[in-house]
Amino acid sequence: MSHPKPSPLAKQMKELGDKFRSLDKDESGYLSKQEVQEGLKSLGLPENSVDDFFLQNDRGKDDQISYKEFVVFMSKKK
Ligand SMILES: [Ca+2]
Q1: Where in the numbering of this chain does the EF-hand domain appear (predicted)?
Q2: Cα of 70 to ligand 1 centre, how many Å?
């Protein structure tokens, strides 16, 4: 089976990866509160929701958002 275009899921995953990398300014592989704050702004969400964001999405409670946590957040969004 050949797909001339990437599947919608593959495309979505690539966009998520691109988005994550664009937010991860220092390329640490994690999003700090400051990086998330910038990201919320670019998503059109209120910047003051950054604390809520960490409460809901920082599952490791390490004050960093991993790519996995980011993907979970984006897939819940919509
Ligand atoms: Ca980072």
Answers
A1: 11-46
A2: 12
